[in-house]
Batch of 3 targets.
Target 1
Amino acid sequence: MEQQNQYVKQFPELMKGKTVMYVHGFGSSGQSGTVTRLRTILPNAKVIAPDLPVHPEEAQALLKELCETEKPDLILGTSMGGMYTEQLYGFDRICMNPALCIADTMQSHGLTGTQTFQNPRLDGVQQFYVDKAMVKEYRLASEQRFSGLEALSDEELEKEKRRVYGLFGDKDDIVDTFDLFREHYPLATHFHGEHRMDDRSFMHSVVPVIRWIDDQQENRQRPIIYIGIETLCDAYNKPTSSSQKAVRMLIENYQVFFVCEDDYPTENRYGQWLEEYINVPAWRHTIYTQRRDLLYGDYLISKKKEGDTMATLLEFGSDTFKTWEDIIEYFSRLGGQ
């Protein structure tokens, strides 16, 4: 069984020379495990992670000040931090399990009375007290959600909606604001994980989104790989040996799309299979077509003999590409080309 720390790796080119701001959750600090992950994954980015004041009005003021002075290229926020992050309009943002109804969450999960910070804080304070007045403060802060969208023109609104991603754990038993978020922002999906992310869920769900944002900011065009769904699942509808390993490797250097042939993409079994076994990397990267020969890109990995194609065909199961390990070796030699 893999250990969690084996999932985390460095990506020196990802967000290189850019500023990334992390907004922590309730009762946490800028010294959280997520900050450690970010600094490991993005060694050439400037990662800033302030200890937020306990009072929300002070926290919001600090975040707005940092946005003005640091001008972050990307803001990520978890839970309560996800609520704050949504309100930092005009920046590319990722809201992870955002607690958009934080006061209700505090009351339903016993986050009142004396609380101990989950992580060390720079000021050395270890505990704080939450009374009814502070709960009211958080309720007022949460009610500001989406308020900045109202003043935007139609054009500005559409642009803003495309700058915000929402990632929601499918096993989160603390916060469930997916539907509320999705009413205002279209870029929302579920990942496999709980409210508090571990190394695996962060690498498999957040890092691909960071890569998409970085590519968009840089207008970077990666070589395109199309993967036929039949190469990924075996006769028992389980992942083919090393297929998930290959996908994780390929998305680091390529724009990867998954190709299905079902006529009803919202209800088909292949879409459900991709959501279960590939998850976030397949989100908005799945194509439904009966004509793979018309797919314009660099590589097509397929079990089917496609005839003339507009991409270099790698025939999965052939003598050259009998397994996914053969595919991995092939692309390892190409070095991202």
Target 2
Amino acid sequence: MEEQTKIYEEIDLEYCRANTNKRFVNYLIDIIVFYIILIFLGFVIELAFPGAIHYDDVDPILDRIVSLILYAIVMFAIEAAFQGKSVGKLITGTKAVNVNGETPSFLQLIARNFIRAVPFNALSAFGRPCAPWHDKWSNTYVIDEKLLALQQRKDVFFKELRGEASSAPLNEGY
């Protein structure tokens, strides 16, 4: 793990940040997945306990609060299971990392997902760089894995170019 941290120390995570468009697509995919899970859970609850779910006298504020808490729990469970990736991040090739470029800790994932309930958090994602509050306050980034791979290969490329990575000269066959 120490070697991995050393590699990430040389990488500019600011350069690797996912852009606003990818973050928006992540959100759209994740919200669709959340509602599919919610509908499935509602269906299972209704099958197990007929008549348990009724919407006649639901308080809209309580409904919103429960929805935000459920969203945070579901997103936390998914990101914890897939080491910083939600379904949207899996599809778009992005992932959440801490400031050292490693998988976020348990507490960072909890904080990240419950901070999403803060009013206007979604609006904080617009701009360049894309740095919504749930990233800033949990000390995490969402990075584009292709940009991260380019950053990692850059160091290897320049070492090979200087002849540091191998003992053979670069023009050996000529």
Target 3
Amino acid sequence: MRHLRIFVAVAEELHFSRAADRLGMAQPPLSQAVRRLEEDLGTTLFDRSRRQVELTPAGTALLDEARALLTGEERLRALARRAGEGDLGTLHAGVPPGTTVATLSLLLGACAEHYPGMSVELQEITTDEQLRLIASGGLDIGIVHQPVDVTGLHLGPEVFIELGVVLPRVSPLARLPEVALAELAGHDLVLLPRAQAPGWYDRILDTCRAGGFDPTGLRHASRPELLLALVSAGHGIAFDQRPVAGKEPRVVWRPLADRPLARRTSAVWSAGRSSHPAAPHFAELAADVLARDRTSILHRDRTMNLHRDEGAPAKTDPPRPWAVVYDETAWRW
């Protein structure tokens, strides 16, 4: 390829000295390269018998093919570079069970915008299973709820999401502007199964007990829909984000006093040489999507408070008769 580049430069300049200047090299090695190419091809490419260098018929025929080969080499190098940077191929990523459709759509959209040549395959997998698959090479990257053991792993940016308490709408606690953990005494607690995120599960229980709330019983729901159904039926309370509670008109969401529960979410991937080159980029995009999603939630909350200050019903107002079929809070979002 080096000899072809030299040949094309001489063919376009029809002058050995100018071609050498163009390529930033001395003329003697340039002339030697042309002669070696002619020897390899078994034909003369330049007519040097006249005052001006001219292409021979063989040189003229070779010029277009040489240009095409050099263009193909540039494409090949660009392709290899993009693949090495993770902009091509398939990235296998894990997401926590219960991840909302809105979050998944935002994440896939961001990947398509920033890395259009890369295909992303998302799998809904528990934290322990994600870590196992990353270690075995079956998964390139995972989005997990902290805390997790990150030995041998890279950890992406963390996003902190405040959690409040989800209560039946008819609960007396629903009339309070915020709820302290100790005020939840006597209630069962509805949680995602421990297998989905053991570290986070244990942290919730430790925080509850430290705050004066020792659940009378534990119930488990693998999906947000089941969690909301159990709460609305009076089988316990739960901790989650406000938008999750907004999907069920028979429950309400209230912030926790002193904000003791904040879910930490981040991407993790292998620290070995075999890690996918796109993993760090995906981790940044995932953190950005989760942060923007959280910012949107906070913005909606501030807007609701502003409306209430202007005369809208306060949180302490009793539920209206139509509240069971139409969620006024969701409407204000």
